[in-house]
Structures are given as structure tokens and as C-alpha cells.
């Protein structure tokens, strides 16, 4: 039996315990309940219309969760579980109710010891027991050794286009190299082909899938109410960012950053350079941002258009608002330990993953 906890607001950005709501955030009465627990390294969640959900486990399993019960979905592509890599994101197609199509990102073996981020499409069987007609749509070229910075969110725009975030794999200079997929946001047609209006199509030495570049390790992505893409990405020591992603733009890594290297040394040339974008918001010290969601306002109307980002390091969910963006509040409870993913369900409830608790939770009213 799931037992909900009643919440009467959430943290102001400067507080350290569950308290009253920051005035700018919009007071809400809400409840939080566990949808499933006992999961090993959950990474992403995709809620369905009946309060069931798909959940990825980094080790390579895709799970179907319903009424507190969990079953394994067969047919997942072969996954390399190494370091930060494994089976990562799961996203429902925008027409899932009719097509039952889902998109998965994962780390695959590319031979010679190299591994890299890949994207697959599949159809979930009617009984949710298996993936059918699985097809790889994309794999980054070329993969590299090592188990860090895979990025790996996939989101689908209203026009059907797919956007996938890819980390620079620890190879900092690759983020500025248009001949490599490292440190990029890529854009694909739904079938995995390259849209001809991508910015670097036909440019010698550039990968045509690239939409934007200069990213370090973008692990969150979501569209706002106007259809703009927002991404959260890890900085080094400081300099975690939320960026509005625009076609062909350079987001600076590793030339500019508001953080420093872990050694304390300056990163690149400072915090600004002509031709490179400034973040919409940044954190210093780092919070280790993961999933990102822009909220519709369906269940909590005063939060309409607000951006929510999970913190892996400080165990809370950040709420951002305004122009320029400001962190107006934090949701911080015993449930928000190392928040790996955060999404909006079809009914407007907010679902999130706690990696430490090995659980998926739902915030609702």
C-alpha cells in the first residue's frame, strides 16, 4: 500500500529544512507518494496515462511499473554498463497512445574498447511485457574509452523531431569540434535520418546531426510552453548551467565557464567570449543537475512555465522562474535524495526518481 506524505509548501532557496514556501513560488498544498521502491540505479521514468510507468535501470533493464508492482520488459538493446553509462533515458513518443512507440538512449559497445551514446526506437507490446520492432536510430561517432559524460536525454518536439544530448565523454576539446558528436545536442527526424535544415548539413568536416555544441555533460532536457528547448548540464567545480538551446549556437565549453577545474585552475578564457552563449542560469557551487522539466500548470496552476531541475549533489528539486531565471524555491524532503529524473505525467502530477532511495515518487494534490 502506498502511503502519501502531505507537504504544505517547500523550501526557499536559502533554507536547509522543509519549511514555508518562498513568496515568489506560489503556495501549494501537495502530497508525495512512492510509486515503486527497491530499484537498483534507476535513471529515467516515463509515466503513462493510467499511473503506470516505464523505468530504466542503469544496469540494462527496462521495468514496467503499475499499482506498486514491477515487471521486466524484454527486448532491450544490448547495453554497456560502465561508470556513468548504461541504459539511460526512456521517452514516450508524442503519439504513444496510438503507436506505443518509445525512445531509449543507452551506451553501446563500438568495438576496440570504445563505447558511446546511442538512440533506439521500439514499440511497447500491448501487455507492456516486451519491446518489439527495435531499431537503432543513431550512435555517436566515434565512441571513446572511459565511463563518464554520456549526457543522454532524448525529447521529442511537437513537430516530431528528436533531440538527444551527448556529453563530451571527458574529452573537453571535442565539445568545440564539429567533426565529433561529443558535447553536442543533436537533432534527428523521427526515423533517425538527418533533417536538411540542421545548421551544419553540407558543411565540410561537420557532423550533420549537430544542432548546438560546446556542452560538457547535459543530462536534462525539456520543452517550454512555447516549444523552446531547455537543457541542464554539469559544469566542473561550479558552473552547472541551464541553457535555452538554439540552432547552431556555441555554449562555450571548455572555453568559457562560471566554474573552475577541480584543481582550482581557471577554465579556458574566463566566463564570457564573443560568439559564445551565456547560460540562462548557473549554479556555483555545483548542484550536479540531472533531469529537467518545464511544467504545464495542469495540476499546479501557479507553477505554469516554471522549470524544475533535480540535484544529484544536494538532494533537492530546484524551481526556476522569470527572465532572467531565478531559483525561487527548492523541494527538499527525505524522498528527494539524489534526484536523477523529473517529468510531468499526463494528469499534471510530477514524477521523480531518487537514486539513493531506489524509488520513483509522485507529487500531486
Automatic annotation (TrEMBL):
Gene3D superfamilies reported in the protein's UniProt record: TolB, C-terminal domain
Signal peptide boundaries: 1-26
The Glucose/Sorbosone dehydrogenase domain, residue ranges: 39-361
Pfam family, one: GSDH
Keyword Signal tagged: yes
Keywords attached to this entry: Signal
InterPro entries listed in its UniProt record: 6-blade_b-propeller_TolB-like, Glc/Sorbosone_DH, Quinoprot_gluc/sorb_DH_b-prop
Name of the protein described by the UniProt record: Glucose/arabinose dehydrogenase, beta-propeller fold
Organism of this sequence: Sulfitobacter brevis
Amino acid at each position: 500500500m502506498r502511503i502519501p506524505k502531505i507537504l504544505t509548501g517547500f523550501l526557499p532557496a536559502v533554507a536547509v529544512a522543509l519549511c514555508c514556501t518562498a513568496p515568489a513560488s506560489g503556495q501549494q498544498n501537495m502530497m508525495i507518494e512512492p510509486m515503486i521502491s527497491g530499484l537498483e540505479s534507476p535513471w529515467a521514468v516515463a509515466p503513462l496515462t493510467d499511473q503506470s510507468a516505464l523505468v530504466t535501470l542503469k544496469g540494462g533493464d527496462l521495468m514496467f511499473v503499475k499499482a506498486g508492482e514491477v515487471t521486466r520488459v524484454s527486448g532491450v538493446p544490448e547495453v554497456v554498463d560502465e561508470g556513468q553509462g548504461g541504459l539511460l533515458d526512456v521517452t514516450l513518443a508524442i503519439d504513444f497512445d496510438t503507436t506505443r512507440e518509445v525512445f531509449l538512449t543507452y551506451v553501446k559497445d563500438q568495438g576496440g574498447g570504445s563505447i558511446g551514446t546511442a538512440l533506439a526506437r521500439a514499440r511497447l507490446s500491448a501487455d507492456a511485457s516486451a519491446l518489439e520492432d527495435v531499431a537503432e536510430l543513431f550512435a555517436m561517432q566515434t565512441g571513446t574509452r572511459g565511463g563518464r559524460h554520456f549526457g543522454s536525454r532524448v525529447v521529442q518536439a511537437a513537430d516530431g523531431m528528436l533531440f538527444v544530448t551527448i556529453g563530451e565523454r571527458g574529452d573537453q576539446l571535442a565539445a568545440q569540434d564539429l567533426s565529433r558528436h561529443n558535447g553536442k545536442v543533436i537533432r534527428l527526424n523521427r526515423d533517425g535520418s538527418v533533417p536538411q535544415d540542421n545548421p551544419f548539413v553540407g558543411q565540410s568536416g561537420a557532423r550533420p546531426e549537430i544542432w548546438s555544441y560546446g556542452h560538457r555533460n547535459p543530462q536534462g532536457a525539456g520543452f517550454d510552453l512555447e516549444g523552446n528547448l531547455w537543457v541542464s548540464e554539469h559544469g566542473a567545480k561550479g558552473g552547472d548551467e541551464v541553457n535555452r538551446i538554439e540552432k547552431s549556437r556555441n555554449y562555450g565549453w571548455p572555453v568559457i565557464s562560471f566554474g573552475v577545474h577541480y584543481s582550482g585552475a581557471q577554465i579556458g578564457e574566463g566566463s564570457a567570449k564573443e560568439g559564445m552563449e551565456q547560460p540562462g542560469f548557473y549554479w556555483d557551487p555545483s548542484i550536479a543537475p540531472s533531469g529537467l522539466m518545464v511544467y504545464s500548470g495542469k495540476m499546479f496552476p501557479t507553477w505554469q512555465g516554471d522549470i524544475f531541475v533535480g540535484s544529484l549533489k544536494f538532494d533537492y528539486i530546484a524551481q526556476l522562474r522569470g527572465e532572467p531565471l531565478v531559483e525561487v524555491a527548492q523541494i527538499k524532503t527525505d524522498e528527494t535524495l539524489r534526484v536523477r529524473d523529473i517529468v510531468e505525467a499526463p494528469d499534471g502530477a510530477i514524477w521523480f526518481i531518487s537514486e539513493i532511495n531506489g524509488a520513483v515518487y509522485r507529487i500531486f494534490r
